[in-house]
Amino acid sequence: MSPGIALPPESEFAGLGFDVSRFESDSLVLHREPFRLSWMLTQLVTFVFVIPKQVESWEETSADYEKLTTYARQNKKTFLPKGFQCGYALLPIYVGAGFSDQLKQTVRTKYTKRWCMFHLPSLLDISTGECTTLAPNYIWGAIYRGYIHRTVTSVAEVVVKTPRP
Question: From the centroid of its chain, how far is CA 111?
Fold first, then answer.
């Protein structure tokens, strides 16, 4: 865990409707699998990874993709296979302080298209409370945009409210 970064107790996320577990001992995983008619009858298997890690580049966030995907596939609850009315949202939130402006700009504008898989890293600066995430003007997966933004924002708010040592 990065020095000075305390994550909230797992119980803090219960009110947000998540199942909560641990990932790599120092990170939290928040999991839910909503199904919505407004999403063209699809289910979005959602994993929010709250990771206390000061990332310096987009490549660092991309390097975590494989292990996050593996975790999600092993821990999903739905019987639906990926791609059959079922997609995944992997939403890692890197918790640190003082992320570079260049990295924040990249996070706001860049994403990689993958088959039925959203991997949208966010940066949460605990010193300012600022959460940087993909700007809301992307077209790919636009039907999930509001849900993803609300999910990341609500988790970030809980983390920011946590007292620091």
Answer: 13
The predicted pLDDT at position 51 comes to 95
Extract the tokens encoding 96.
Answer: 């640190």
Q: Which residues pair with 104 in a beta bridge?
A: none
The strand pairing partners of 32, in sequence order, are 46
Residue 46 is encoded by which pair of tokens? 């959602």
Structure tokens at 8: 């909230």
Tens of pLDDT, residue by residue over 11-46, are 888 788 888 888 887 899 998 876 665 666 777 888
**First-last CA distance in the chain:** 13
84 Cβ contact partners less than 8 Å away, ≥ 6 residues apart: none
CA-to-CA distance for 149 and 134, rounded, in angstroms?
Answer: 8
Q: Single out the residue of 71, 78, 81, 13 nearest to residue 47, CA to CA.
A: 71
Instruction: Give DSSP secondary structure letters for 94-161.
Output: EEES---HHHHHHHHH----BTTEEE--EEEETTTTEEE---TT--TTGGGHHHHHHHHHHHHHHHHH
Q: What distance in Å separates the CA atoms of residue 79 and residue 25, rounded to the nearest whole number?
A: 27
